Amino acid sequence: MTPARGDHEARRAEVSAAVWRVLTERGFAGLTLRAVAGELGATTGLLTHYFPSKRALLRYALDLLDEAHAARPRPHAEAAGPDAEGLAALRAALLDILPLTPESAAGSRIWVSSWDAALADAELAGDHAARYRRARSRMAEFAAAAQRRGELRTDRTPQDLAGAAQSFVLGLVVQALFAPEEFPPERQRSLLDAYLADLAPDRVGSASSA
Q1: Are 77 and 96 in contact (CB under 8 A)?
Q2: How does pLDDT run across 157-169, given as a tens digit for each residue?
């Protein structure tokens, strides 16, 4: 039965919580209308009021992931300070992507599991590409500021530096999820810092003169 208008927001919150529980326990592969209905103790017919198709359910789940990611604490950005710019801001943004805590690891597992669904659907793939593009654009701003401050090499564009850095940390996310014992938080930080250090202007000059 379709919920009354006054109960709509409360019911939507319940649906969101159920979708999140399914994502956490089963990943995107297990995200189905039947699974969400089971979490709610409801029928799949009720859920069609919110999700007329499997794609609608998946897109909603991705929006939930975005909201959760935006709302989660960002200790590295906070440590860098609200006025951080340049390399400090870029480093903080990259650290916030890595699965350095149990909570961020759980979020990363859900996010990575969404790639399979997105690769099988052009519209979902476009949504993912737009998300990564927005993140790269923000990182490129930090990289450009770092170049102006003399903190990063200038023989590559800020956009290329941002794209490479994003690719590096996403690869590190996968490594840490599959082999957490080999890539504990302290090693993830160390690898990222070594990666950024290799982009320093003095390191570039030393490498070219060797």
Answers
A1: yes
A2: 999 999 999 999 9
Q: Which amino acid, residue 192?
A: L
Phi, psi of 136 (to 5 degrees): -65, -40
- Helix, strand, coil shares, percent, the chain, to 5: 75, 0, 25
Q: Which of 170, 118, 64 is nearest to 195 (CA)?
A: 170
CA 75 – CA 89 distance, rounded (Å): 12
Q: How many CA atoms lie within 13 A of 107 on its CB side?
A: 20
Q: Does the pLDDT value for residue 175 go beyond 90?
A: yes
pLDDT in tens, 69-98: 777 665 655 555 556 789 999 999 999 999
Residue 199 DSSP class: T
Residue 134, CB-side half-sphere exposure with 13 Å CA sphere: 6
In angstroms, what CA-CA distances link 84 with 40, 75, 93, 175?
44, 13, 11, 29
For the record, the structure tokens of 203 come out as: 């390191």
pLDDT in tens, 15-41: 888 888 898 888 888 889 999 999 988
Q: How far apart are CA 175 and CA 192, in angstroms?
A: 13
> How many secondary structure helices (H) and strands (E) does the chain include?
11, 0
Q: Which residue has the tokens 């969400």?
A: 36
